[in-house]
User: Which sequence fits this backbone?
DNA sequence: AATTTGACCGAGG
DNA sequence: TCCTCGGCCAAAT
C-alpha cells in the first residue's frame, strides 16, 4: 500500500505556490475519504522528501503539523514567505487560500 | 500478538 | 467554536 503514500506526495507536490489544502481533501481525492489520518501519517514519513508539507493543514487551517518540521516556526515562516498570513498557528483567510486537488480534474474536465 | 497512538474528519449537542 | 464519539489504517511499543 505504498501507492497510497506516493499519491499523497504527488498531490502535495502539486499544491500551487501560495496555496494550502487539507488532509481531508487529499484523502478524498485519493479515494480514502474517511482516512485523513493516513494522509497525515504519510506526511510524517515525508521528512526527507522535497514536498511542500507546510501547505498542508487540517480543516480549520490550523498548523497542526508544525511540530514535525525542523523548527516549529519554520512552517509559519514558509507560509508567510509565500504570501499567506499566519496568526496564532492558524492561517488567516484560510478558505481564501484553500486549494482543492479536484481543481486538477476540473482543468481536464473543462472540455466537457 | 494485542493495545495504543496519530500532522484527521464529520456529526451531534 | 468547543466537546465527545466513531471511523479509518499503519506504525510503534
Assistant:
Amino acid at each position: 500500500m505504498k501507492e497510497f503514500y506516493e499519491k499523497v506526495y504527488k498531490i502535495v507536490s502539486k499544491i500551487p505556490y501560495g496555496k494550502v489544502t487539507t488532509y481531508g481533501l487529499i484523502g478524498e481525492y485519493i479515494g480514502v475519504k474517511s482516512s485523513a489520518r493516513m494522509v497525515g501519517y504519510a506526511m510524517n514519513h515525508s521528512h526527507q522528501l522535497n514536498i511542500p508539507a507546510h501547505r498542508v493543514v487540517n480543516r480549520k487551517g490550523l498548523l497542526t503539523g508544525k511540530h514535525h518540521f525542523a523548527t516549529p516556526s519554520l512552517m509559519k515562516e514558509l507560509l508567510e514567505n509565500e504570501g499567506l498570513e499566519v496568526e496564532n498557528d492558524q492561517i488567516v483567510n484560510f478558505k481564501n487560500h484553500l486549494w482543492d486537488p479536484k481543481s486538477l480534474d476540473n482543468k481536464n474536465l473543462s472540455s466537457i
